[in-house]
């Protein structure tokens, strides 16, 4: 399976995701933001980091990069798109995902492992997980507070477009298990066609038992075996 990782000035998780993809047997290529063509790709990943230093707002400048037009074309043709952390923010800036990521509720940068619950395991991104499975995944962000208008929130719930929710170690979803104030504890969402996933947690950091855990592995194994 061919993957492409988009690299922006300020990206700092591009190599992490490349290592994770290659470990899972993807044939990966790195794509610079000024490129105007994409290599043949079954999966395009927009990685975490601080593209353009998060000036203006997170993802705002990256969302206008030259390569974005090709990403949008690929997404509209059904290519799988994964946006992690800053990548999620960029996806909302491009309009590929609805909603926005606001400042964390405590107005502080968060870097810690959190628990998330698998809300939909009937997608190409999540099929190797069990429904309601609890994962421990790292988050590292300043703007992870997901917000959207009420009509879209209704659509997310009705069409089963919520991928993950923040929870505690027992799977309880409430304010106490919400690290950033995200609406309904939302940690990740799909688009209507479910070929695009945006998520704040970093699954690429959870693919090696020696340095973390392997709770992120099944996201990539779901994709490689789609």
Structure, described:
The protein has 226 residues and is an alpha/beta fold. The protein has one domain: Class I glutamine amidotransferase (GATase) domain (Rossmann fold), CATH 3.40.50. The chain contains 5 helices and 11 strands. A 9-stranded mixed beta sheet has the order 2-1-3-4-11-10-9-6-7, with helices on both faces. Strands 5-8 form a two-stranded antiparallel ribbon. Helix 2 links the parallel strand 3 and strand 4. The longest helix has 11 residues. The protein is globular and about 45 Å long. The relative contact order is 0.18. The model has no long low-confidence stretch (mean pLDDT 95).
Keywords:
226 residues; alpha/beta; Rossmann fold; nine-stranded mixed β-sheet; two-stranded antiparallel ribbon; 5 helices
Instruction: Tell me the strand order in the biggest sheet.
Output: 2-1-3-4-11-10-9-6-7
The largest β sheet comes out as: 9 strands, mixed
Overall SS class: alpha/beta
Radius of gyration (Å): 16 Å
**CATH fold-level topology:** Rossmann fold
CATH level 4 superfamily: Class I glutamine amidotransferase (GATase) domain
The top level CATH class name? Alpha Beta
């Amino acid at each position: 399976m061919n993957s492409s990782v988009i690299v922006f000035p300020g990206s700092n998780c591009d190599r992490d995701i490349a290592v994770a993809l290659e470990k899972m047997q993807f044939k990966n290529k790195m794509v610079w933001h000024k490129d105007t063509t994409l290599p043949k790709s079954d999966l395009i990943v927009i990685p975490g980091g601080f593209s353009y230093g998060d000036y203006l707002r997170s993802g705002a400048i990256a969302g206008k990069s030259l390569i974005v037009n090709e990403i949008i074309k690929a997404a509209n043709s059904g290519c799988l798109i994964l946006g992690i952390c800053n990548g999620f923010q960029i996806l909302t800036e491009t309009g590929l995902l609805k909603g926005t990521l606001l400042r964390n509720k405590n107005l502080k940068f968060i870097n810690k492992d959190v628990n998330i619950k698998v809300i939909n395991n009937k997608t190409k991104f999540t099929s190797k997980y069990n429904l309601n499975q609890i994962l421990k995944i790292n988050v590292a962000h300043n703007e992870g507070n997901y917000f959207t208008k009420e009509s879209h929130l209704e659509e997310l719930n009705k069409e089963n477009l919520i991928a993950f929710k923040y929870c505690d170690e027992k799977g309880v979803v409430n304010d106490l298990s919400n690290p950033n104030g995200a609406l309904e504890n939302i940690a990740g969402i799909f688009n209507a066609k479910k070929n695009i996933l945006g998520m704040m947690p970093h699954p690429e950091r959870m693919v090696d038992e020696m340095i973390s855990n392997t709770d992120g592995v099944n996201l990539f194994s779901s994709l490689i075996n789609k």
